[in-house]
Amino acid sequence: TMGCSAGDSECAADEMPAHSVTISKGFWMGQTPVTVAAWKRYAAVSRATVPAKDDVGNANLNRDDNAPVVAVRWDEAVAYCNWAGGLVLPNEAEWEYAARAGTSGARYAGLEKIAMKGSLGQVPSKDPNAWKLYNMLGSVYQWVWDRYDEKYYTPASVTDPSGPATGDARALRGGSWDDDARSVRASYRYWYPPANRYDSVGFRCVWE
User: Fold this and answer.
1) How many Cβ atoms are within 10 Å of 195's Cβ, its own excluded?
2) Comparing C-alpha atoms, which of 180, 194, 199, 207 is closest to residue 10?
3) pTM, whole model, 2 decimals?
4) CB 25 within 8 Å of CB 90
5) Is 159:170 a contact under the CB 8 Å cutoff?
6) What is the band of 62 on the pLDDT scale with cuts at 50, 70, 90?
């Protein structure tokens, strides 16, 4: 079931209604968000860079090789995943399925056990979910493949949803270290223009 968790009073309209989703093909997901160290290896062969500041003037937090890389545009995240062995960004359904790891609540563990607070630390850190995925919630917002549409969810069951066909913004999932607790929930959805850079946004890749 994708969308607002039963009993979760913090859901917004774009998380509703909860609906049945079938993912027909298996996939592997990166155990952590992509790190600064991994991005440096990519940059060495691609000339990719991440600016010292994001689009609103915040200093880029990429000071530790084991921290998630941030302030990466959506297209740069796509390019990295392709470079790293033909990987891709997860779609929203894949991301939420992986974040929940068989659980049905708003979070896969208590907030204090899964979320960074006030600063971006190293990964892996905090408690993983049942599928040994670290920092799915409350570390960095994570780009996904889908375009964002606040009215995209429908009551009907769907198989292998790939997101809206049109739209200017791309969806983000997972909440971040500098956000409030409401964003650190498995069903929470957010968005940014794909060309923007923010110090709270990173990504992880999947292999389908």
Assistant:
1) 12
2) 180
3) 0.96
4) no
5) no
6) low
Nearest alpha-carbon partner for 202 in 173, 180, 179: 173
Do the beta carbons of residue 11 and residue 4 sit within 8 Å?
yes
Closest by alpha carbon to 20, among 139, 136, 154?
A: 154
Peptide bond into 17 cis (omega under 30): yes
Strands (E), the chain: 21-22, 28-29, 141-147, 158-159, 170-173, 189-192, 201-202, 206-207
* Strand partners of residue 125: none
pLDDT of residue 132: 98
Whether residue 89 contacts residue 78, with contact meaning beta carbons closer than 8 Å, is answered with: yes
Residues in the chain, how many?
A: 208
CA 8 to chain centre: 20
For residue 120, count other CB atoms closer than 10 A to its CB. 21
What's phi and psi for 203, nearest 5 deg? Answer: -170, 165
**Buried/exposed code over 73-95 (b: 16+ C-beta within 10 A; e: otherwise):** bbebbbebbeeeeebbbbbbbbb
Residue pair 70/62 in contact (Cβ under 8 Å)? The answer is: yes
Residue 38 is inside which H or E element, if any?
A: helix 36-46
**What integer is the mean pLDDT of 188-192?**
98
- Residue bearing the bigger pLDDT, 155 or 159: 159
Residue 79 dihedral angles phi and psi, to the nearest 5°: -65, -40
In terms of Cβ atoms closer than 10 Å to its own Cβ (0-12, 13-18, 19+), residue 119 is: exposed
Residues with Cβ within 8 Å of residue 110, at least 6 apart in sequence: none
